[in-house]
Amino acid sequence: MPNTLSDATLGQLMTMTAGLEPDLTQGDFNRSYRYGDTRNIGLSKQALQSRGLQGRNGTHFYNNGSYALLGALLEALTETDNVATCASRVFPDGTGETAKFDDDWIGLAAFGGWSASAEDYLSFVMSAYDPAGDIAPNLLRLPNYRNPERGWYYGVGTYFRLRSPHNIFWHFGALCGTRAPDQGSYFAYYDNGYAVSVNFNACSREPLGIALDGVLWEAAH
Q: How far apart are CA 72 and CA 49, in angstroms?
């Protein structure tokens, strides 16, 4: 671990505040396409190159490398892969049957290697972030970062805003510009208790993502 990150905590990796910036995994996805095994260690080494350590500790910068590092730690501690360790723990009983490593993208493992149906993804969202669940009542006791200007938070694997009686959670993810077809997913769990999950085969650049978010917000309200 480079000296600049030697004091980084698990919480900082989970909240993208460890100083990893820019994201050196971007533009290199094709190396992971149909790799056949997880690349958490290789992607972690890539993220930790000196040119990827230009950020400031404590400042939020979304970086896949943080999740690659967490994935590598999880593999080392459990002596198995992320899906084998996590699937039965994060999906409610009777769901998650479609959750697995994507055959084409297992190399991205901890931040892009999973696949699941929209229905199973939604069951995870509604279980994990339900007001009566294990996570939502403890949001501020778990590692989190608050954007001081806009008031949103990042932690527990997603962005969120504090609302009563129901907080708002949302997240985008996409694999674009690769040898494989573009694909991605989006979920939102709104303050009125409605939740949505969408899988898509398009590249969700920011304008498209904002438009999708707006349409789903209107549908749910």
A: 16
Q: Using DSSP, state whether 174 is helix, strand or coil.
A: strand
pLDDT over 80 at 5, yes or no: no
Amino acid code (one letter) for 43: L
Report the DSSP beta bridge partners of residue 158: 155
The CA dihedral of 45, 116, 182, 219, to the nearest 10 degrees, is: -120
pLDDT in tens, 67-80: 999 999 999 999 99
Tell me the pTM.
Answer: 0.91
Which residue is listed with tokens 């994201």?
A: 23
Cα distance between residue 106 and residue 88, in whole Å: 18
Structure tokens at 154: 């990042």
Alpha carbon 99 to its chain centroid, in Å, reads 15
Burial class (CB in 10 A: 0-12, 13-18, 19+), 168: middle
Q: Which residues pair with 160 in a beta bridge?
A: 153, 169
Could you list the beta-strand ranges (E) of the chain. Answer: 100-101, 114-115, 144-146, 153-155, 158-161, 168-175, 183-189, 195-200
**114: nearest Cα among 61, 67, 154, 177:** 67
Q: Residue 105 region, left (φ>0) first, then alpha (ψ -120 to 50), else beta?
A: alpha
